[in-house]
Design a protein that fits this description.
By secondary structure, this protein is mainly beta. It contains two helices and twelve strands, in the order βββββββαββββαβ. The strands form three sheets. The chain has a six-stranded mixed β-sheet with strand order 8-7-2-1-11-12, with no helix packed on it. The chain has a four-stranded antiparallel β-sheet with strand order 5-4-9-10. It is globular.
Amino acid sequence: LTSVGAQDPLTLFFSEVVEGSFFNKGIELYNPSTSAIDLGQELCELKRERREDGQDRTERVYSFEASKDIIDSLNTFSVVSNLASQKLTVNAGAAVAEVVNMKFKGVWQLQLVCNGTILDVFGDFQYPLGDDTSGHDVAGVTDATMDHTVARKDTVGRGNPQWADSRGTTAEDSEWLVLPKDTFAGFGVQL
């Protein structure tokens, strides 16, 4: 197993985020390295951060389990809501964790953290207080993180903890493709 620590802290990254209807929530990670990674052994976790009542709040979405949550080389690992539709869970692939009561909305920032280092982010935790109906703009699409599937372009090979750089302002300068709500066809599929 490889370490995602000091050698290359940006190995793993978010490759797709589904913020769909009802409980159709899913997060896909991609491992571009040549070795499998035990996500639990590397102390990886998914967090969400948001600002509420003037306070920054970080909450754990999922902590990976050692010897169980392993992402193979050049492959994906999916985390989905246990209440997601079968259309999403079927596409999630073989390496999947179902999370009970998994909650996230397009207004929150998702963070991929391993060994205490933020490897990648999706979204910005600073949004207008009390506004949980608007998402963040991505690739020139207004509210793209809300009610859309957002997939990393296949030209991206590592995470980017700088959301402003990652999201871009146009389709050309963004690291992401914005797809219609409840688009699951590419979820759980290696790049």
